[in-house]
Design a protein that fits this description.
The protein has 368 residues and is α/β, with parallel strands linked by helices. The protein has helices spanning 6-11, 30-41, 63-73, 91-94, 100-109, 126-129, 143-152, 172-179, 218-225, 232-235, 273-285, 316-332, 346-359, and strands at 24-26, 46-48, 55-59, 82-84, 114-119, 134-138, 156-157, 185-187, 199-202, 209-212, 229-230, 258-264, 290-293, 306-308, 337-340, 364-367.
Length: 368
């Protein structure tokens, strides 16, 4: 699958006169990981698999590399990047202070889908942190990600490897759709496991606060460190407030079509007859509408333009792993109109709905 050699990869790390570069598709072999590591050391960008989504990596301590990440994504430079490490000891190199609660969370959840925000040391450039005095750190569990960090010898700043606002990539093919010609290489690790980004928790205040929900839930955190708050911006987003963490923008993860969530005002976590009837009435008005649902209720809709996120509404992990692929499939179908059920069952359901609400720009129709 590899498409270029080491010399070519290093040479093609930044856009040429034409404004694009050759993007190499690499495997997870040690040889290809070595190529990717050399690209990172030279200041280039490499997309790589994690257990959550594919990340777009650059040297976290290089202002130039961080700037290239923002440019490749078309991402606002006030949106902070997460720094990926391969050893918990490296937190001491990046954070000005590491409270006991942070150490307890690292012990419980690293490597894994949890990002911890701490006060930063001066060596972490403001370009990496979006100008904030804090740094977001995580230790991924994907073997290729860990090997890449260790082989490169650099801390890797890595947001999701998609253009800003688009659904995050869960396969190398998704990355190539958005990043081909923008970055030096993509490591193909196959489909990811979890499918939504890591939980982000800030430990910079008196009480730990979740800034982005994910696979590691509030109750899981509280078992380890006690009381945990949820940032009010997750409940009522304000696009005018500077983001404290990635993914806190008002609209994010969006397909190209108009996405609307339909839910029952009295029973939002249930797919009631009212919800099914409303979706069918909207399908009648717009026959080209695509419906996001599960096998549990798919047969109730008067259309064959169905995308299944799971077998039933209790399979939250399956729904999470398929969500971004489903949103991209809507684009493949040329869907101008997309209707989605509510998938809020369980704590992971809260993380799913966080992404889905942002993808819809918080457009929700509530039926009685």
């Amino acid at each position: 699958m590899k498409t270029t050699n080491t010399t070519d990869s290093i040479k093609n790390i930044t856009p040429g006169e034409s404004g694009s570069i050759t993007t190499s598709l690499l495997t997870q072999s040690s040889e290809d990981i070595h190529i990717a590591a050399e690209i990172l050391r030279a200041g280039g960008l490499v997309a790589f698999p994690t257990e959550t989504v594919y990340g777009l990596g650059g040297d976290a301590l290089s202002e130039t590399a961080a700037g290239r990440i923002y440019a490749a994504k078309g991402r606002p430079s006030d949106n902070p990047l997460i720094v990926h490490i391969a050893d918990t000891k490296d937190v001491e190199n990046l954070a000005a202070s590491v409270p006991d609660k942070a150490k307890a969370l690292m012990e419980a959840f690293w490597p894994g889908p949890l990002t911890i925000i701490l006060p930063k040391k001066p060596l972490v450039p403001d370009t990496t942190t979006g100008g904030l005095p804090t740094v977001a750190i995580r230790m991924p569990s994907h073997p290729a990600a860990l090997e890449l960090i260790r082989e490169s010898g650099v801390f890797i700043a890595a947001p999701s490897a998609n253009t800003s606002g688009r659904p995050s990539p869960t396969t190398a093919e998704h990355v190539m759709e958005d990043m081909n010609g923008r970055i030096a290489a993509v490591i193909d690790g196959g489909p990811v496991g979890i499918g939504i980004e890591s939980t982000i928790v800030s430990l910079t205040g008196d009480i730990p606060t979740i800034l982005r929900p994910g696979y590691v839930t509030k109750s899981m955190l509280e078992v380890i460190i006690g009381e945990v708050h949820i940032d009010p911006a997750l409940i009522k987003p304000d696009p005018n407030i500077r983001p404290q963490a990635p993914g806190m923008k008002y609209t994010h993860y969006s397909p190209k079509g108009d996405l609307i969530i339909i839910e029952d005002s009295k029973y939002p976590d249930m797919i009631t007859e009212n919800v099914i009837n409303k979706i069918n009435s909207l399908i009648k008005e717009q026959p080209d509408t695509v419906v996001l649902t599960t096998a549990e209720t798919a047969s109730r809709y008067n259309t064959d333009r169905i995308i299944l996120l799971g077998d039933d509404h209790g399979t939250s992990l399956t729904i999470a792993s398929r969500l971004y692929s489903a949103l991209r499939k809507c684009d493949d179908l040329g869907a101008a109109h997309i209707l989605s059920e509510n998938f809020s069952q369980g704590e992971l359901g809260g993380a799913i709905m966080n992404r889905l609400l942002r993808a819809a720009g918080h457009k929700v129709i509530r039926v009685d």
